[in-house]
Model the fold of this input.
Amino acid sequence: MKSVFVTVSTTSFDELNAAARSPPALQALQSRGYQKLVLQAGRGSLPQPSSSPAAAVEAFRFKDSLAEELQSADLVISHTGAGSCLETLENGKPLIVVINDKLMNHQLELAKQLHRDGCVLYCNCRTLPCTMQSMDLSALKPFPPGQPEKFASFLNKVLGLQ
Done:
């Protein structure tokens, strides 16, 4: 069963969960073959689990780890938190990042850069259903793996340990 995982991490972003479970969004998911929607509410309002002809909807607030949800998801829709974006991309999952228009911070810059790099699609809550309907996940590029050994080498040089 193809599934979508929506995460807001530890924040409150009720608008994202509402947009993801709206009738147009559920119809877009159904037209793409997704049958399950898992919502993580964080500090926001906990949506009631439901089942519609379009998709089964489950919800929870927090878990010790989101690794299981990330592993089982075929698509991740996330707030534009750096940690959430990087963890999803490092797991090799297609990602739609949703900007919270109520927060004017680094989110837009991060979303634009990851989009320019070809790694994500991005939108806001209002345009999420349209993005889901028109998405071409095959066009997304894999996120390049980190190279911590280069950073360690740099630190060793700076600290005079090498």
Observations:
- Helices lie at 14-20, 23-31, 67-72, 82-90, 107-116, 128-134, 148-158.
